[in-house]
What we know:
By secondary structure, this protein is α/β, with parallel strands linked by helices. It has helices at 6-16, 32-45, 65-77, 91-100, 110-118, 135-140, 144-151, 169-178, 208-219, 231-241, 274-283, 297-304, 314-338, 342-354, 357-360, and strands at residues 21-24, 58-61, 85-87, 105-108, 129-133, 159-164, 183-185, 199-202, 224-227, 252-255, 265-267, 288-292, 310-311. Helices cover 45% and strands 14% of the residues. Strand 3, helix 4 and strand 4 (105-108) form a beta-alpha-beta unit. Helix 4 (91-100) packs across helix 5 and helix 9 (208-219) packs across helix 10 (231-241). It starts with 5 loop residues before the first helix and ends with a helix.
Amino acid sequence: MEHGNAEPARERANVSRNQNVMYVLPYDSAAIAQFMGPVLEHLAALEPADESGRGPRAIVVTPDAEGAIAIARWIASQSSNAASAIAATGASRSARLIAAHPAPLIVGPPDQLLELVRRAALKLDDVRAVVIAWADVLVDAGAVPSLEALMGEMPKESARSIVAARTTPEVEALVEQYARRPRRVGAVPADAVEPLAVRYVVTGHATRGAALRQLLDALDPPGAAIYVRSDDSERDVRDTLRPLGYRGDDIVRIVRESTPSAALVILYDLPSSRTELEALAASAPNQVVALVQPKQLTALAALAGSERLSPFSLDASLAAARATDQRTRDELRAVLELGLPARELLTLEPLIGDFDAASVA
């Protein structure tokens, strides 16, 4: 998980005044730019200093190693310095790297970051910005004790940004404890409770392309709009569609906003807001399918306004296609067992002499 300049500009201005921010954003890589962009600009605005011997200027807490790598990769893409961020996915390895190549940003799960602090490998005195992304996933993973111990070591004056895919009492408790009275970005309106018909396919982040191909094979829509929120996602989708024979944006279109009409809308990324999902759903009533990671299901349910979403089983669709093929074979067997009329045999006989039976069939 990037578009438009007015809102990010306001976010940067608020972060620079050390104001805490609460983001409600989908749990995906397309959202990273929205909450990390202001943090990078905040750090750039700080007084220049010799980084040698200093601790990091920002700490980003993630639910797992995969999230840490995604954020560190995005940070590296914004800087010519490849060592601008270290993904602390293992305490021993990260301790060695931090000692050899100090980085202004350290990103990692709370247990790994806490272990680095306890080893005195990670100094937090110079931290000016703390990001907790995604708080709701951290709560679900049972990582709150490690997070609380880590946050107890952070400088009180550091700017706080908390990201969550959905707000829950547990998330609000973390906001109250670590980022009181934050400015809120992307919150779902309280009155948006009308359930939307959204089906979903569970897949991994790296296997969304394969799931997209299987979904198109299973449904064979006469037209479809595939929704993405980032350049990386758009490249992935184009790389998936090209070998399938789709050209341009005729039958299957890649969109970043609602489309006038579509036989099917596929959410390759989750929409950033309920309003955006409503507009996409209006494009294809009852024909919206989301490709989601297991950790995104609760966020999708919150956006759709329904605690019980409808799964779309690719296995069931393929089984139905196989059943249709089997019925066709059974019909052919029945015809063949009765014996073909002589006229058809005379028509086919010259072809069988020139081609194998499979080609004639």
